[in-house]
Every structure is written in structure tokens, then in C-alpha cells.
Design brief:
The protein is mainly alpha-helical. It has one domain. Helix content is 64%, strand content 0%. The protein is globular, with a radius of gyration of 14 Å.
């Protein structure tokens, strides 16, 4: 099962490779999030959905953390 998950992650990573052959910073952060939290998505559609939701939350987190008036920091969990 873990081998399948790694192959699926590698395949999904290939979907994000840009024209210059590199992952964007956001794509790399998402792939790191998947690996760190042992996430598994059963299909490309689910992977893309989760990537989109992660990106929305990442934007909220970055905006909040950039505000010097905030007394706490947000992060992915």
C-alpha cells in the first residue's frame, strides 16, 4: 500500500511540473504537506480538489501571518 501511495504522489507531482521542469514553491509545499501528514488521495480528481482547498487555506494563513497586528500565527495541520 505504501508503495502505491508513493507512486501516486510521484505521479501527482509530475502533473505539477512546470515548463522549466521544476515544481513551483507552492506545489513543493503542498507535496511536503502530503508527505509529512501521510495524506493519500485515491484519484487525480480528489488530489486536484485537495490541492485547491490547500491553496485557499495557504493564502489565508499567509495573509494572517503577514499582519503584524495579529497576536498568534496560523499554520497547516
Amino acid at each position: 500500500m505504501k508503495t502505491f501511495a508513493l507512486v501516486a504522489i510521484a505521479g501527482a507531482a509530475n502533473a505539477f511540473v512546470s515548463f522549466d521542469g521544476l515544481l513551483s514553491s507552492d506545489d513543493f509545499k503542498f507535496m511536503s504537506y502530503i508527505a509529512t501528514n501521510n495524506k493519500f488521495y485515491g484519484s487525480t480528481d480528489e488530489f486536484n480538489l485537495r490541492r485547491g482547498e490547500w491553496a485557499k487555506k495557504d493564502a489565508i494563513i499567509n495573509e494572517h501571518n503577514a499582519d503584524p497586528t495579529q497576536t498568534y500565527k496560523l499554520g497547516h495541520n
